[in-house]
Amino acid sequence: MDTPGIEHAAVCIQSGDIVAFPTETVYGLGADATNDKAVARIFEAKERPQFNPLIVHFNEIDAVWKETGPSEVAIKLAKAFWPGPLTLVLNRASDCKLSPLVSAGLDSVAVRVPAHVGAQLLLTEAGVPIAAPSANRSGSISPTTAEHVYTSLGDRVPLILDGGSCDVGLESTIVDLTADVPAVLRPGGISKNALQRVLDTFVDQPKNAKPTDETAPKAPGQLLSHYAPNTSVRLSATHKKMGDVLLGFGPVEGATLNLSQSGDLLEAAANFFAMLHQLDAMNASCIAVSPIPATGLGEAINDRLRRAAAIRD
Ligand code: TXA
Ligand code: MG
C-alpha cells in the first residue's frame, strides 16, 4: 500500500465504490458512510442475507462527535483508547449525515477511530467517514491479510489495499453506550481489564451470546433490537387499500414512495430505511409493500420486512 494506491482508493470511495483496506484489527470492506448506495454495495458484496448495522470509521475523534451525541463516558473512552481497536455504539445526532443503512434503521451507530496508519491516510484522503464491516463473505471468518480478502470476496471487491497482516488480528471490542450502564457487546482488541481501568461499571456480554443473536437472554443494551415501524406492514401488496400508504418497487401505480421505479435492488436497499421511516411518520393505518424479488439484496430487504410485519399485537 503506497501513496498512489491510497489516492486511487480514496477516489473510489468518493465515487461511491467499495474498497477493502487494512486496519489494525482486521481488513474492512469500506464505502462512503454518507452515501446510501455505496453502503448498499457493501451488503451486496458480502452476500449478507440481513442488514446488520456496520461500524463507521473516522480519521479523528472530533469528527465522531459531529455525528453522535457524545457523553462523558464516551469522551473518557475515546481519550483512553482512540485511535485503536475500540468501537462505541452511540446515539445518532439529530443532524447525523451518516446513511440510515449503516445503522440498519436504528437510532444508534457504531463508530471507531482506527490506529492503522494506512487506514488513517485513506480516511483523511477520502475526506468522508468510511463504513466497513470485516471484508469477508457473510458466514466466513474475518480476514487479517489481503490474500484472505481476495479468497473470500474475489472479484466482488474492485480494489484491495494490501497492508500486510493486521497487528491485532482480532476485531475491535464493542461497547454500547446507549443504555444507562455501558455494555460490552463483543470482546476484542481492547481487554476487559483495560476497560475496567477507565469505566466504573459495565455489563458484560453473556458467554456464547452474539450481539446479533436474537435468542440470547436480554440484558441492558446487549441485544440488537431491530428497527420496526410503529405502523403495521402488509407484504406482497398488489394495491393500496383505504388508509394505506404504498411502498412500491418497480413500475407500480399509486405508490406513496417507490424504492426503485426501475426495479433495481441496489437502489431499493439504499432507499429502504429512509423510506420506511418516512412512511411510518405519516400515521397511515398500514404500510403496504409491493412484492420484492428474493434474490441478491432482495433477501435482506425481505428479511427486514418480514420482521417488521411480524412484530404486532
Ligand atoms: O475490528 C473491527 O471492528 C472490524 C474493522 C474492519 O473495523 N469491523 C468489524 O465489523 O468487525 P463487523 O460488521 O464485522 O462487525 C460489527 C459488529 C456487528 O456484530 C454489528 O452487529 C455490531 O458491530 N454493530 C454495529 N452497529 C451497531 C449498533 N448500532 N448497535 C449494536 N451493534 C452494532
Ligand atoms: Mg464480521
Please state roughly what percent of the residues sit in beta strands, choosing from under 5%, 5-15%, 15-25%, 25-35%, 35-45% or over 45%.
5-15%
Amino-to-carboxy terminus distance: 54 Å
Order of helices and strands: HEEHEHHEEHEHEEHEEEHEH
* Structural class determined from secondary elements: alpha/beta
Bound small molecules, by name, code or SMILES, are: threonylcarbamoyladenylate, magnesium ion
Spatial strand order of the main sheet:
1-2-6-3-5-4-7-8
Please report the total strand number as a whole number.
12
Mean pLDDT: 90
Q: Residue ranges: pLDDT <50 for 5 or more in a row?
A: 211-224
Rg calculated over all Cα atoms = 20 Å
Number of helices: 9
The main β sheet shows up as: 8 strands, mixed
Proportion of residues in helical segments: 25-40%
Question: What does the overall shape look like?
Answer: globular
Output the keywords.
313 residues, eight-stranded mixed sheet, globular, 30% helix, binds magnesium ion, four-stranded parallel sheet, binds threonylcarbamoyladenylate, alpha/beta
